[in-house]
From TrEMBL:
It is found in: Nucleus. GO terms for cellular component: nucleus. It comes from the Eukaryota. The keyword rRNA-binding does not apply. This is Protein FAR1-RELATED SEQUENCE. It comes from Arundo donax. Residues 1-34 are annotated as: Disordered. Keywords: Metal-binding, Nucleus, Zinc, Zinc-finger. Pfam families: FAR1, HTH_FAR1, MULE, SWIM. One of its GO terms (molecular function) is zinc ion binding. PROSITE patterns: ZF_SWIM (PS50966). Residues 546-584 form the SWIM-type domain. InterPro entries: FAR1_DNA_bnd_dom, FHY3/FAR1, HTH_FAR1-11-like, MULE_transposase_dom, Znf_PMZ, Znf_SWIM. Putative transcription activator involved in regulating light control of development.
Length: 670
């Protein structure tokens, strides 16, 4: 028997002679339930399948799995099966590697086989009555560690997808739901904790792959390329690139639109590259580049599909993205935790700061910590976000240590990994690197996630995938313009009597002004101390120590704070605003109201190809009604406003009536 160890008599003397292994007493050691159900020599079963199921149940309780190994017949041909061996899944040795140049290439996998000697042997009795099987040899000696119950369920032998679950998975795949979303839906349906389904994401992907014919996949891939070519014929500003593998199958593809390139030119200083989803229909990783404009609205920069999520694929995607954006690299790129992507960024974007999106990391927290922390999970989450926003790295490190001690997370591999990579996601370690506020988990993640989910929804029909994403982007551009208009029409209320507030309100977008206004209001609670020369100390009035150090260059009107908020977000901090107020500034210096956050007039509304977009009459009518509604609302606040509005609208109406009428701009009525 390969890799096995017989603790009975010679292999040819069964079933009359049978002995028990000396190691049998170790069965289920430390687990009374497992020990009580351990196999024993002489134990009888009606069928060999029943014996297998019994031994398999015992193995699972002990922390290993089994496989069928050898079968033997006795007394020549015609007597049937009389002896069978079941062995530990790690019995035997690794299969020999194929020779170089072999006709059938094989994957170079690591083998878990290590010559384990654990086994159970059964023999069939040939006495009177119904034949039965009995145990003729058993050993529970393992030369490797056994798994705990949290890990043994992940062994392939115990990962099972039921027929009903297979039907659900295939239905989800056809509707365009990602594998991660499938897993979460089924966890909720079965009321199990995250990560406790009887199968893994890899099993689901393998199932989807097995139900897809290679020929159909190739056809869909070709259609995807042809779709880009067709889009390019209609829109010459549309950009795309792709590669194929040695089998002429689509390997990588990426694309972007003219409006996306325009947005990137203004707001490509900080970019999120989300690679946490897959296109289930093709089992390809989907990467989406997004950013944030001056009104706090997500903007689409580009999309890629990658067959493999390795370093080479990510490097290709980053190279293509730079080509799309005229070789202009972002100041900061934020991603999920991915070692291959990290290596690609270091190689292709050497001057770009790489940071991790806290909200992408936090999306895994339920599966990582929910079962470990139990009822304390929500409290731990709140503490995590508090630590993310501490003032300095020393406070963060001390707080992290206290958190680990309080929640008894010593030895947790996820906690260890997070702490090791803290310089990539914890705000105290990222100060000074511009991120446009994208590191703020709560305020920014929700609109970006909603936008990304709309893009992912385009995979419901692969045949129109590129066009559907184009429609999502176009809709977002139009909705963004309406949102910007609504923000501009809002009545901004000033909260302080500081002249700088009114000046900033007139220059910055409402989104950016709200951030600066929060800092300005908070600055009233801080005291400023002029230390010497151009150095100031600013700290909260209730604090007797600590604070932030500021330097002020009067000649060039340059101010620098140790908190580095302006360098990170482009918004002046409360400490700098307090010093400017002390120095009797009535306006914020222009270079501290960056163009990125100003009320710049958006370019003329254009379609994805850069040409003027002809909106539907109903959309234009709705936008006009929104403006008129805001006009009436504002005018009604005083008689003076009402008189001014009436006068100006009357003049405007006269000018409008002087313009030629056109049915093309009407609602369609003649």
């Amino acid at each position: 028997m390969e890799g096995g160890a017989s603790s009975g008599s010679g292999e040819d003397d069964y079933p009359d002679e049978a002995r028990l292994s000396l190691e049998t007493s170790e069965a289920g050691e430390g687990d009374p339930a497992a020990a009580a159900a351990a196999p024993y020599v002489g134990q009888r079963f009606p069928t060999h399948d029943a014996a297998y199921e019994f031994y398999s149940g015992f193995a699972r309780r002990c922390g290993f799995s089994i496989r069928r190994h050898r079968t033997e017949g006795k007394d020549g041909v015609g007597k049937g099966l009389t002896r069978r061996y079941f062995v530990c899944h790690r019995a035997g040795s690794a299969p020999a590697k194929p020779l170089a140049g072999a006709a059938k290439p094989q994957r170079n996998r690591m083998s878990s086989r290590c010559g384990c000697q654990a086994y159970m042997r059964i023999g069939r009795s040939a006495g009177e009555g119904t034949p039965e099987w009995r145990v003729t040899g058993f050993s529970n000696h393992h030369n490797h560690g056994l798994l705990g119950q949290d890990n043994v369920r992940l062994l392939p032998a115990y990962r099972v997808i039921s027929g009903s679950d297979k039907d659900r998975i295939l239905m989800f795949a056809k509707s365009g739901i990602s594998v991660q979303q499938m897993m979460r839906i089924m966890e909720l349906e079965k009321c199990v904790e995250p990560g406790n389904l009887p199968f893994t994401e890899k099993d689901v992907r393998n199932l989807i792959q097995s139900f897809r014919k290679v020929g159909q996949e190739d056809e869909e891939s070709i259609d995807l390329i042809r779709m880009c070519k067709n889009f390019k014929e209609k829109d010459h500003s549309f950009k795309y690139e792709f590669t194929k593998d040695d089998n002429n199958r689509l390997e990588n593809i990426a694309w972007t639109y003219a409006s996306s390139v325009q947005s990137y030119e203004m707001f490509g200083d900080a970019v999120v590259f989300d690679t946490t989803h897959r296109l289930a229909a093709l089992d390809m990783l989907i990467g989406i580049w997004v950013g944030l404009n001056n009104y706090g609205i997500p903007c689409f920069f580009g999309c890629t599909l990658l067959r493999k999520g390795n370093q080479e694929s990510f490097a290709w995607a980053l190279q293509v993205f730079l080509n799309f954006m005229n070789r202009k690299a972002p100041q900061t790129i934020l991603t999920d935790q991915n070692a291959h992507l990290k290596e690609a960024i270091e190689k292709e974007l050497p001057s770009t700061k790489h940071a991790l999106c806290v909200w992408l990391i936090a999306a895994r927290f339920p599966s990582w910590f929910s079962a470990v922390l139990g009822d304390s999970y929500n409290d731990w989450t709140s503490e995590f976000y508090r630590l993310c926003n501490t003032e300095n790295t020393m406070d963060f490190d001390h707080g992290w240590s206290d958190m680990v001690n309080h929640y008894r997370l010593h030895g947790n591999r996820h906690i260890a990994s997070l702490f090791t990579s803290r310089n990539l996601w914890a705000l105290p370690y990222l100060r000074g690197h511009f991120s446009a506020g994208l590191t703020a988990s709560a305020t920014v993640s929700k609109p970006i996630n909603v936008f990304i989910q709309r893009i992912l929804g385009a995979q419901t029909c692969l045949a129109h995938f590129i066009e559907q994403i184009a429609e999502v982007v176009a809709y977002k551009v139009q909705a963004g313009e309406q949102d910007m208009m609504q923000q501009n029409l809002q009545n901004i209320s000033l909260k302080t009597s500081v002249a700088m507030e009114g000046h900033a309100a007139a220059v910055l977008t409402p989104y950016a002004f709200s951030k600066l206004q929060d800092e300005l209001v908070a600055s009233a609670h801080y005291a400023s101390f002029h230390l010497q020369g151009c150095v100031f100390l600013v700290r909260h009035h209730a604090s007797a120590e600590g604070g932030c150090s500021l330097t002020w260059n009067r000649r060039e009107e340059l101010i620098s704070c140790s908190c580095q908020m302006f360098e990170s977000t482009g918004i002046l901090c409360r400490h700098a605003l307090r010093v400017l107020s002390t120095l009797n500034y009535f306006q914020i210096p222009d270079h501290y109201l960056p163009l990125r956050w100003r009320r710049t007039q958006p370019p003329h509304s254009k379609s994805l190809n850069g040409a003027p977009r002809h909106c539907k009459a109903s959309d234009r009518m709705e936008a006009l009604q929104s403006v008129v509604s805001a006009l009436v609302s504002e005018a009604a606040k005083s008689n003076e406003r009402m008189d001014l509005a009436t006068k100006e609208v009357t003049l405007l109406l006269v000018r409008i009536r002087q313009q030629p009428a056109s049915v093309h701009g009407s609602s369609g009525k003649r």
